[in-house]
Amino acid sequence: MNRTYINEVQKEIGNTVKVQGFIENLRNSKYMAFIVLKDITGKLQITVEKEDHPDLVGTIDQLTPDSVITVTGKVVENDYVKMGGIEMIPEAIEVESIADALPIARKAIAATKKKKAVERSSIDQRIDYRWVDLRTDENQLMFKAQSCMVNAMRKFLLDQNFIEIHTPNADRCCQRERL
After folding, report:
1. Separation of alpha carbons 86 and 73, rounded Å
2. Which of 91, 57, 61, 59 is nearest to 74 (CA)?
């Protein structure tokens, strides 16, 4: 079965599909588990009723945020799901990689009755772990806007008969001359 990107899942309601991505959020309670799976195109809620799928409980218990998984399951509509009213009921969950605890807090997390509040890491810490920080929706939106703008400028200039030239790095040229 071929992978389906999350933004294409809404066309597959009632069908069984395979999705892959990072775990953005995981709520694992006694009877239910909710996984928010994220790929480059969007987010999808995976809902597991543990009583119906006891074979998945062990797999779910080992998952951590930012782990990478492949999920095969049926796409269904659910008005209670905030992510477009669509969720997936999994038949199988395959763990691609388990993520260690993140070295930074990408977002501030409000306190609940069971957990203390978590402050967002400082800019210095986030810069040290930039590859983790870049996974936030805000940062990805900036890169998508930048890609769109650069593509539009490139297309405009090519339509005006400009040519794109890639020159060597100036620092490397200068270092060669000094030697």
Report:
1. 13
2. 91
Q: pLDDT of 61-119, one tens digit each? A: 999 988 999 999 999 998 888 888 999 999 999 999 998 887 877 777 777 777 777 78
- Listed in sequence order, the residues at least 6 apart from 108 whose beta carbon sits closer than 8 Å to its beta carbon are 117, 118, 119, 120
Domains of the chain, earliest start first: 6-97 (2.40.50.140), 102-179 (no CATH)
CA distance 28 to 152: 44
Run of H or E including 32: strand 32-39
Residue 174's CB is within 10 A of a number of other CB atoms, namely 9
Q: In degrees, to the nearest 5, what angle opens at C-alpha 162 toward C-alphas 160 and 166?
A: 150
Q: Could you tell me which residues come within 8 angstroms of residue 87 by beta carbon, excluding any fewer than 6 positions away?
A: 44, 45, 46, 47, 75, 76, 78, 81
